[in-house]
Amino acid sequence: VLFDNVRVPQSNLLGKEGNGFKMAMSALDGGRINIASCSLGGASFAFDLTKDYLHDRKQFGQPLAAFQGLQFKFADMATNLVTSRLIVRQAAQMIDNKICYQNSCFNIANEALQLHGGYGYLSEYQIERIVRDLRVHQILEGTNEIMKVIISRNLLK
């Protein structure tokens, strides 16, 4: 929506003249925490589904959970999940961290998809939906690139 040559009476202004963009950007802060929490929930769900899958799925006569290479990936997912949880808890105070936990949560879901192999792309396994949902979180409420600009500006003040 574009407003060209629109006049707003002084009595209808919110805040000071010229600060509208700044006010709109600050309104995104709560949404960023919400998106981070949704990503964390999706990553946690992907982690739990993958844990069950690694125990249930058998290859070469043993569960996938018995294979060291998959254990390494799963351990990395667990570490990233714990880290992301801690960062999200601090999000109310440190909103600019969206980019860190956003990428971490997406990577957890993406690794979960990989650990499911070809089945990860099938809708009956739910992982593909989680990956799609978390990918869009990297765009909502400010893309990762925009978040880097905001972080850099604050650091360079």
From TrEMBL:
Origin species: Paramecium tetraurelia
UniProt KW Flavoprotein keyword: yes
Pfam families named among the record's database cross-references: Acyl-CoA_dh_1
Occurrences of domain Acyl-CoA dehydrogenase/oxidase C-terminal (ranges): 18-156
Catalysed reactions, as listed in the record: (2S)-2-methylbutanoyl-CoA + oxidized [electron-transfer flavoprotein] + H(+) = (2E)-2-methylbut-2-enoyl-CoA + reduced [electron-transfer flavoprotein]
Protein's UniProt name: Acyl-CoA dehydrogenase/oxidase C-terminal domain-containing protein
Cofactor: FAD
Gene Ontology molecular-function annotations: acyl-CoA dehydrogenase activity
InterPro entries attached to this UniProt entry: Acyl-CoA_DH_CS, Acyl-CoA_Oxase/DH_mid-dom_sf, AcylCo_DH-like_C, AcylCo_DH/oxidase_C, Mito_Isobutyryl-CoADH
Gene3D superfamilies reported in the protein's UniProt record: Butyryl-CoA Dehydrogenase, subunit A, domain 2, Butyryl-CoA Dehydrogenase, subunit A, domain 3
SUPFAM superfamilies, per the entry: Acyl-CoA dehydrogenase C-terminal domain-like
Swiss-Prot/TrEMBL keywords: FAD, Flavoprotein, Oxidoreductase
Membership in a protein family: Belongs to the acyl-CoA dehydrogenase family.
